[in-house]
Design goal:
By secondary structure, the protein is an alpha+beta fold. The protein has two domains: 89 residues, 2-Layer Sandwich (Alpha-Beta Plaits); 73 residues, Alpha-Beta Plaits (2-Layer Sandwich), CATH 3.30.70. Helix content is 30%, strand content 37%. Strands 5, 6, 7, 8 and 9 form a five-stranded antiparallel beta sheet that branches. β6 and β7 form a beta hairpin. α4 packs antiparallel against α5. The N terminus is likely disordered.
Length: 185
């Protein structure tokens, strides 16, 4: 495989050999499921048996306490996603499945960063926080905890900027997503 930044064309075999199967066709699946024990295990097991790697997974309640919303993001270009969605429909606890089109979807993620920030570096870190419209949620003598909400790209850009100051800890949620407009999920 070529060096980073080279314009060499890579085949699928080269990507598989390197262990990097990211092909760019991202899927965001929004599932409405019954809020019962074991549902999440059955769903993730189905993806594992089909050879899919889940990039992010977020589960939360809906306006109906009997239902939960599961948002799964994954790279679906290597394996056809249709097979998995058909299998998901067969699961008794799955009520509804939507494969959200990334271009027509609002997706957000939450991240907490604990960054070393004492003395002169604290002002620089706080400047980055302002630029990204992030929020400081905890402040101590030697560190600051920052909350960032936004797209995956925004959070990754923020990480790159604060890492040189000394990234002590980072925690990220999975993406949550909703379709734009009036359509329901």
């Amino acid at each position: 495989m070529g060096e980073p930044g080279t314009k060499e064309i890579l085949s699928l075999e080269d990507l598989e050999a390197a262990g990097n199967l990211r092909t760019g066709r991202r899927h965001i699946l929004a599932l409405t499921v019954e809020n019962k024990p074991g549902v999440l295990t059955r769903i993730t097991g189905l993806f594992a048996r089909r050879g899919f790697n889940i990039d992010t997974l977020a589960v939360g309640p809906t306006d109906d306490p009997a239902l939960s919303r599961i948002t799964i993001t994954l790279d679906g270009a290597v394996h056809p996603i249709d097979q998995v969605t058909k299998q998901l429909h067969k699961l008794i606890n799955v009520i509804k499945i939507r494969d959200l089109e990334p271009a027509d979807t609002l997706a957000r993620e939450l991240a907490l960063f604990k960054v070393a920030a004492d003395g002169p570096t604290r002002a620089e870190v706080m400047g980055i926080v302002d630029i990204f419209r992030a929020k400081i949620v905890d402040l101590s003598k030697r560190a600051v905890v920052i909350e960032v909400t936004g797209t995956r790209a925004k959070i990754e850009a923020f990480e790159q900027l604060v890492r040189p100051f000394g990234l002590i800890e980072m925690v990220r949620t999975g993406e949550i997503a909703v379709a734009r407009g009036r359509s329901e999920t």
